[in-house]
Amino acid sequence: MQSVTFVTEPLLHPDFVQYQIVAPLLSRLRGRWDPELAAPVLSKEVIRSLEDQGIRAVSGAARFPRWLRNSRDEIPSYVWSWARDSVFGWNRKVLQRALKGSDSVRVNFSMTSALESDCWYIQSRPLGPGLDAMRPGVDWPLWLALSALGPFVDRVDWRHIVRMSNLAGHVYASSGHVARWFGEHRVRIDGVFPIYYSPTFRPTTASPSRDYILGYLGKETDAGAMKMLLDTGLPVRLFGAKSAGWVGSILRGRESANVRALGHVSPEELRDLYTNALVTAFPFTEESFGLVPVESMACGTPVLTYGTQGPGESVLDGKTGWTVETAEELVGRAKELFRDGYPQGFQRSCLVRARDFSLERAWSNWEKLLASIAGDRSSAWAVPTGSGSERRIGPAPRRRSLRLRRRQRQTTAPESATSQTALVGGPPPKGRSRARPEGSSHRRPAGALVRAT
Q: Which pLDDT belongs to residue 135?
């Protein structure tokens, strides 16, 4: 049986989002593939969880500060891992030692470890642009630190991206937004595979209460928009306990009978929160894909968000939610929805749309890609492994320097990112535009309405 290795960021707790994305996919691939997960460092708890699912765990045993190892927040460990590899190349060294002699099909899910791979799966924009987008919403000490480090991060980050691209045989992105950004920066994208939501997210009742607005607090949150929403007096429930440094000022002086901050909630509690909410409000600064909107739709609840980046692709305006351009529009639409409600057909549309981001759809996409890579490898060339040299893993014809890629892109038009996502369940294909017809924001189809109770 052919083995497959997914390389991830450091995984220090099973609550880390990347663990929740990669582990179910590897478990689903088991049977046709011999699955393995490798990372610069894995906690004992993560290793036990992987082994319980029949997934082989490979930890590079990289040195991480003790305070990071005990954190359930991914951001500190992500930044530490990025610095280790982008500046010193340490992640690559420990992973090369840990995977020495392996001939598995290798997929790099990491944005912080530049390692030879058959496929690099890009889940987000680089660290620099992400920090720039989030900077306006953080407290001033963190704002000063980000402002001072920004130029250095951008310079080092781009060099790291070039290295990761050149070490990959194929490059896939998590959304059309990510594909377009990297395409504009001369990185060849072969296709788009949307991230999927956990199968545990589904409606918990046929008669949801619809008596509050649900919001998420995290590093992606648009702090200004969320403050405006909380100040309206509408009943709002908030979940999310990670990245306190990013959102510490949002709740200050705002908790009341109408504003309930729930912090960390279990998957079962979150599923119930999604199901009973009137709408999930998701204002963000930087969101390459957006699991919260997809999870909400999987529970039958429409989403109120911005019409850009990842959520602008997954949420269909006027069908599975509403997309706006500004914080003022978002708050105004929230008031309108709480007052007037919306057609019951939204729930059905949400459930149908969520299927495009299901584990089964993701498994089908990855199964075909891995089989293609394995076939190319067996027919194209023998893969040397275990040496410390600059190896190239995968079919030889895909090995091109970044300079050659740039020349080719200047002479050939890149494939449309939107058409790629249409093949795998991203934004709707041409002819099913998400744009709202003029004046439709105030028109409501005949029939029963879902109203706040």
A: 63
**Bigger pLDDT: 252 or 108?**
108
Pick the closest to residue 165 from 404, 371, 415 (CA basis).
404
Given a cut of 90, whether residue 425 has pLDDT beyond it is no
Q: Which two tokens stand for residue 429?
A: 């294909």
Band (248; pLDDT cuts 50, 70, 90)? low
Instruction: Tell me the CA end-to-end span of the chain in Å, nearest whole number.
Output: 55
Q: What is the CATH number of domain 213-357?
A: 3.40.50.2000
With 0-12 / 13-18 / 19 or more C-beta atoms within 10 angstroms meaning exposed / middle / buried, residue 363 is: middle
CA angle 335, 341, 344 (to 5 degrees): 150
Q: What is the per-residue pLDDT for 246? A: 60
Cβ-based burial of 259 (10 A; exposed 0-12, middle 13-18, buried ≥19): buried
Mean pLDDT, rounded, for 226-253: 81
Whether the domain at 3-196+359-415 and the domain at 213-357 fall into the same CATH topology: yes
What pTM, to 2 d.p., does this model score? 0.80
- Within 13 Å, how many C-alpha atoms sit on residue 145's CB side? 9
Least confident of 150-159, 307-316, 390-399: 390-399
DSSP state of 358: -
The candidate with the shortest Cα–Cα distance to 306, out of 177, 444, 120, 155, is 177
Domain boundaries, the chain: 3-196+359-415, 213-357
444/450 Cα distance (integer angstroms): 12
Pick from 386, 408, 387, 389: which is nearest to 397 by CA? 408
Q: Reduced to 3 states, what is the DSSP secondary structure of residue 362?
A: helix
Task: Give residue 144's pLDDT.
Answer: 67
Q: With beta carbons less than 8 A apart as the criterion, state whether 267 and 299 touch.
A: no
Q: What architecture is the 3-196+359-415 domain classified under in CATH?
A: 3-Layer(aba) Sandwich (3.40)
119/393: higher pLDDT = 119
386 vs 114, 116, 275, 389, CA distance in Å?
16, 11, 50, 9
Query: How far is the C-alpha of 54 from the C-alpha of 210, rounded, in Å?
Result: 40
